[in-house]
Amino acid sequence: LSSAQLFVINGHGMEDWLGKALKAAKGSKTATVVEAFAGVPKDRLITELPHIHLPGEHGHHHHDGPNPPLWLDPTLAAHAVTNILAALQKADPKNAAGYAANAARYVERLHVLDRDLAAALAPAKGRRIVTYHPAFPYFTRRYGLDIIGVIEEVPDVEPSPKYLAALLKVMREKDVKVIFTEPQFSPKLAERISRDAKVPVAELDTLETGPLKPTAYEEGLRRNLNTLLKHLK
């Protein structure tokens, strides 16, 4: 951080720790902070998340702000590319044309990815799934899947037995065929639920970590696609 000239963040509350970190980093006053998803239209932001209603509970479940994993929708990822492009051009004007050409090529690849995902998942439209965390609402909205609930509504906070019983009940009522875990978290709790519900467990990557290479995002979403096709046939 102390030597960075440009710092790209997700935004929408995902980097609440950032202020203190920048203060602690010597020389960070010169760094320009860019929110990749700044300016996304409000009607494309998701605040109402999948929620299992417990007995006696009423109303909808709302996040404190927009659900932050917008990158799992490739069309929103293209929006992030545009923001990053503008920041790079401002930071390095002499190479502005090169950044623009690279960004245009990458955005086109994202549109190809989006079309491929939409075509492949069209037969699974409306299929109901359970995920480990509320990380996939943008993806499922884009491709017509239905998240009926999540195992942990808050990361690293284990759900109560009452909540898990309600989740199992809804899974049976909605005929959920698979539970999706995430590679960054232990699958033990999901495996326990899968035994009770008699459905398999599979892994979807939220793409928060991964190899530092230009094709990592596309390859990650295509791996997720293959997993979905295998389990939602």
Structure at a glance:
The chain has 233 residues and is an alpha/beta fold. The protein has 7 helices and 6 strands. The strands form 2 sheets. A 4-stranded parallel sheet has the order 4-3-5-6, with helices on both faces. It has a two-stranded parallel ribbon with strand order 1-2.
Layout of SSEs?
Blueprint lengths: L5 E4 L8 H7 L7 E4 L38 H18 L4 H26 L6 E4 L5 H7 L2 E5 L10 H14 L4 E3 L6 H10 L3 E3 L12 H16 L2
Parallel strand pairs: 1-2, 3-4, 3-5, 5-6
Helix pairs in contact: 2-3, 3-7
Number of strands: 6
Oligomeric description of these chains: single chain
Q: Average pLDDT value?
A: 91
For the termini, the CA-CA separation is 46 Å
Helix content: 40-55%
What profile does the largest beta sheet have?
A: 4 strands, parallel
Q: What strand order characterises the main sheet? A: 4-3-5-6
Radius of gyration from CA coordinates: 20 Å
Percent strand: 5-15%
- Following the backbone from N to C, one meets helices and strands in this order, namely EHEHHEHEHEHEH
Shape: globular
Helical segment tally?
Answer: 7
Query: Segments where pLDDT lies below 50 for 5+ residues?
Result: none
Structural class: alpha/beta
Plain-language structure description:
This protein is an alpha/beta fold. The longest helix has 26 residues, at 96-121. Helix 6 (188-197) links the parallel strand 5 and strand 6. It has helices at residues 18-24, 74-91, 96-121, 137-143, 161-174, 188-197, 216-231; strands at 6-9, 32-35, 128-131, 146-150, 179-181, 201-203. The strands form 2 sheets. A 4-stranded parallel sheet has the order 4-3-5-6, with helices on both faces. The protein has a two-stranded parallel ribbon with strand order 1-2. The mean pLDDT is 91. The N and C termini lie far apart (46 Å). It is 42% helix and 10% strand. Helix 2 runs antiparallel to helix 3 and helix 3 runs parallel beside helix 7 (216-231). The protein contains 7 helices and 6 strands; from the N terminus they run βαβααβαβαβαβα.
